[in-house]
Amino acid sequence: MNQNRREFLKKAGLGALAGLGAAAGLFPAFALEQTDMSNFSDKPVPGKVRWGMLIDTRKCLGNCKECIVRCHHDHNVPDFGQSKSEVKWIWKSGYENAFPTASTQFQNPEVLERQVLTLCNHCTEPPCTKACPTEATFKRWDGIVSIDYHRCIGCRFCMAACPYGSRSFNWEDPRPHIRELSNTYPTRMRGVVEKCNFCSERLVKGELPACVDSCPEKALAFGDLNDPNSEIRKLLAANETMQRKPELGTLPSVFYII
Amino acid sequence: MNKFSQFFVALAAGLAVFVAAWFFMQSAHRGSLPAIAADAVVPTQASPAKGAPIDSSKCILPTDYMRAHHMQVLDKWRKDSVRKGNRTFVNPEKSHFDKSLNTCLGCHGSNPMFCFMCHEYANVKPTCWNCHLSPMEVPQ
Which terminus of chain A has fewer Cβ atoms in its 10 Å neighbourhood, N or C? Predict the structure, then answer.
């Protein structure tokens, strides 16, 4: 190869590199993609809001299932008719099942017989989101542990990770098992996990969750736990409250008055 | 000039060619983007918790653009509303829309076959209706 030509190419290459470097320095728009600051104006601030719920088990008595019926209707929750493949967003469990690690020694027998309303706790440290391999379930900016059903691959790691049994799996196509289709929320498909979403579709419209809205005894309170002046924070300050399995360190956002 | 510096200079020349090619491709890509990209729209100050005043009297973007790009718009809307919480879409005419499939179906749902006619013709099978209620299934 002609050595002169080789030398020329080397110098030309260096020159091009230096020129590009200078151009990038002189015109930043040329080197880097421009940042449009207006894109950041509408982004929610993570951690600013933390939605929480307070359930007064003293008022939530008997066989009332208003909230369960309303929630399961509004969210198109299927009824497969057998407990093994049951899908549930909100349900009632016995006191000792809801609080298995709470002391029951010499406990008021009336309390021990209570049916406690249970739902997804929307933990501040959710174990389920850490187990999800596709990030289909994630903690939102407002503290809600949400599932992106578009992304769920149905591996059920999150169900194994959840210490509260809040998640259900669609073993078959849920569409034929929905009693009455509601157009307030989409259905799910076969092979995805589902659970309570704290009615994020209602919160965005400025409405309270369906269970809180439908409770005839007003036993459920809902609000922003990060706001010291919110109704729920005043109720939490004024009452003795419990969380489910607090020793796990998941920091649930659902509180109970016993 | 020893072997090491020769190698270094050759490396620099190669890098320069790559950088030049990259800039060329970037500028070419920018030029080829359609005039109205879903990304180019500036979001508003409206709080996502309160929702935006929804104007459903007209389509969000010109029909020709929507015909070709509705899947990209829906994909972006899904990501923005489900994962980022940015629910407000503002079109070039400054109308506000909620980033929801229901915004589209609010008008287009009046023709139950609106989606299906074209998808049938083009033989595409989108998975939207596995979960979302199509205009043919929505209880009236």
Answer: N
